[in-house]
Amino acid sequence: MSELQDARNNLEDALKAIDKENHFERLKNHERTLETNISIEKDSGEEKVFKAFRSQHSTLRGPGKGGIRFSPRVSEDEVKALSLWMSLKTAVADIPYGGAKGGVIVDPNELSESEEKRLSKEYINSISEFIGPNKDVPAPDMNTGAKHMAWMMDEYSKIEGETTPGVITGKPIEAFGSEGRAEATGYGAVYVIEKIIEEKGLEDQDLTAAVQGFGNAAEPAVEKLEEIGVDVVAVSDSGGATNKMEGFSYEELTECKRENGSVCKIGKDISNEQLLTLDVDFLVPAAIEGVINEENAEDIQADYIVEIANGPTTRKADKILEKRDVKMIPDILANSGGVTASYYEWVQNKSGEYWDKQKVLKKLRNNIQKAYKQFREVKESEDVYGRDAAYIMAARKLTNALEARQ
Predict the structure, then answer these.
(1) Which of 119, 155, 198, 247 is the most buried (most CB within 10 A)?
(2) Nearest to 216 by CA among 136, 270, 147
(3) Catalytic (active site) residue 379
(4) Which secondary structure element, helix H or strand E, spans residue 344, and what is its range?
(5) How far apart are CA 276 and CA 292, in angstroms?
(6) Rounded CA gap, 45 and 49, in Å?
(7) CB 141 within 8 A of CB 103
(8) Is residue 76 within 8 Å of residue 57, measured between CB atoms?
(9) What is the per-residue pLDDT across 74-131, written as a single tens digit (0 to 9) for each?
């Protein structure tokens, strides 16, 4: 079953739980999806054509919002699933955005930086009529970052004939970006963990975490976990996984990655599959979709799964984990720090007033912990599993917005 079908099934269940299944047909379908073919000249002089997409699931609660990824795995179904998740995520975070997503089918490892720049600009050219500060606001995603967003903003501004920083978020600070945006996704997930520790009275215990990933979201999460006193006993990246039961320091991991290109040169070598089944308090999947599935769900030993990646746990795995009482903090809550900070960047771009990092992170912490409190209340009042609670939260906000216009 695809991630898109999983997302739609979870949404349908949530709508049934709140007696709003009459809105399912409207909310399962996307408002619009654009497919384009973009052409760039390679450094060799060869012309290369790439297929690309931009999908907008819903603008009921505000402009579309969602990243742009460069990956060989990009497909229409993938961007549709991710844009639906974005509609749910912005609703859970209670920020005035809808959901969108985009991507280009490309292996960025096969491109030079100048080719990536040309591809970024041509992609924006191909979707320029589809996006805008009050229509759809893209951001970085897999294999894209601040420099890509700066190139894209520049290209859109040329098309519009005026500087338009609010068209895209995740930009460099020097190019109308926001302080705190780089840390926001990882920090946001740990702000939720911090609240769990506080509510459960776990402060004096020796707490452990395994983090699958060490990229743009996972690395700040490891830093923040260390700061709040949780021992990170395993991490991974594209080179493999490493484990040290006494815990890694953030400094040694970053230094090792800087010197060796991987975090997997220290500690005990383990597989990514082994990392997922370690006996830890918090398992933080922060890499790719579908890594926790019906084949390994019985082997998960963590007390909590805190999802930084989009869709790391399948629907079938959820059923197994629920029976085994593994607590779930789903992606649409746990990784909503990134889109929340993107909203702050957009607000700053529109107002022309820019905030310091401390203010951004303070606002982020308050916002995501407030969302977690609402999530916990729904979970307890409805007596449902974690993912179901988050979907019910989102479904209520989406249907309220829909009914307010009828």
Answers:
(1) 119
(2) 147
(3) no
(4) helix 337-351
(5) 8
(6) 13
(7) yes
(8) no
(9) 999 999 999 999 999 999 999 999 999 999 999 999 999 999 999 999 999 999 999 9
Instruction: Give me the pLDDT at residue 1, please.
Output: 47
Token code pair at residue 110: 């096969």
How far from the centroid of its chain's Cα atoms is residue 370's Cα? 19
pTM comes to: 0.94
* DSSP state for residue 60 in the 8-state scheme: S
The model's pLDDT over 229-246, given as tens digits with 9 standing for 90+, comes to 999 999 999 889 999 999
CATH topology of domain 31-166: Rossmann fold (3.40.50)
Q: Which CATH architecture has domain 182-334?
A: 3-Layer(aba) Sandwich (3.40)
Strand partners, 56: 32, 100
Burial readout 150-189 (b: 16 or more C-beta within 10 A, e: otherwise): bbbbbbbbeeeeeebbbbbbbbeeeebbbbbbbbbbbbbb
DSSP string covering 361-393? HHHHHHHHHHHHHHHHHHHHHHT--HHHHHHHH
Strand partners, 285: 212
247 CB burial (10 A radius; 0-12, 13-18, 19+) = middle
Question: Residues 11, 28: contact at Cβ < 8 Å?
Answer: yes
CATH topology identical between 31-166 and 182-334:
yes
Q: Compute CA distances 66 → 1, 136, 141, 236, 372, whole Å.
A: 23, 8, 8, 26, 21
Residue 245: alpha-carbon gap to chain centroid:
28
Residue with token string 């790439």: 50
Which run of H or of E encompasses 308? none
Instruction: State the DSSP code for 312.
Output: -
Catalytic residue among 20, 65, 89, 101: 101
% of the chain with per-residue pLDDT over 70: 100
Query: Which tokens in the block code for residue 195?
Result: 């609240």
